Every structure is written in C-alpha cells, then in structure tokens.
Amino acid sequence: MQGFPGHPAAMLLVEDDPVEVRLLQEALAAIMHDMELRAHRDGREALAFLRHEAPYQHVPRPALILLSLKLPGLTGHQLLAELKRDPALQPIPALVFTNSQSPQDIRQSYELGANSYLLKPFGFEQLVEMMHVTTVYWLQVVTPAPPFPSRRH
To answer: Which end of the chain lies in a sparser environment, N or C, as judged by fewer CB atoms within 10 Å?
Structure first.
C-alpha cells in the first residue's frame, strides 16, 4: 500500500460510533497489516488532526479519509466542505461512509466534493470485501494528487 515516504499507508475514519470504528479496524486487519487507521469521533477533532493543529503537529496526513455524515461538532457534510475548501487538504480522497440512502445526502456529498459515497454493508464479510476493493482502488490503482501549493495571502 502506498503511503507517505517512510510511513505506512494511513486512513482517517471520522465516526462517532465506537462499534463501527471497531468493525472497520477488524475488517482492515483482516486484509492488510501495514494500514494505520486513525479514528476521530467528531468533525472538529478530525479537522484539527488534518491541519496538524496541537497536539497533532507531527502526525502524517492520511492517504484516505472515510467520514460518516452524522457527527457531533461538524457534521460530515460540513467537514467535507471544509476539506474541499482547504488547498492543503483538498487532494486527499474523502469518501462518505454512511447508512444514509437519501438522494439528498448523496447529491449534497458529491456537490461538496466527495470522491465516493459508500453505503455501510450489513455483514462483516461484506465490510471486509468493501474495504479490500476500496483500499486497492484508492491506495494501489489511483495515482494520488501531489500536495497543492499553499495559497498564502
């Protein structure tokens, strides 16, 4: 899996349900051992992590972001909008990972710049398969965008 030089591939999961976090950890462990999964429970905390604010100044940026729509603090849609407005974060693929099949949620997610909209599967085996396909595609097949130059005014 490609990550940053000297670091394993890293994924950020923004999810407030600890059961969902644990299931995803187990699914990823079943398919790869070199994936670092960071999980944050709310959008504000995730944004601080991604922007390298204290206490996250020295953590590598993830190669992939999975985010739930229903979050405390910033909602998933609000977080997505912030990610895609920030030139430093915009190149990181942001995948909505949710139970919502609402056409409005799907449309809004893509309008805000989601790279994919994934419906959480109901069974563990389906979750493992989804994570396998997702990580192979985003971390092995796709050529990632280089970091955008920062725009300082």
So the answer is: C
Residue 9, SS3? Answer: coil
Residues 118/24, Cβ–Cβ less than 8 Å: no
Burial class (CB in 10 A: 0-12, 13-18, 19+), 33: exposed
Distance CA 124, CA 130 (A): 10
Domain architecture of the chain: domains with CATH: 10-141 (3.40.50.2300)
C-alpha to C-alpha distance for 11 and 4, rounded to whole angstroms: 12
Task: Name residue 17's amino acid.
Answer: D
- Residue labelled with tokens 């990610």: 83
pLDDT digits (tens, 9 = 90+) for 55-111: 998 888 899 999 999 998 899 999 999 999 999 999 999 999 999 999 999 999 999
Cis ω for the linkage preceding 55 (within 30 of 0) = yes
Please give the pLDDT value at position 61: 87
Give residues with Cβ within 8 angstroms of 127, minimum separation 6.
23, 24, 27, 120, 121
In the block, tokens 């300082």 appear at 152
**pLDDT band, very low/low/confident/very high, at 1 (cuts 50, 70, 90):** very low
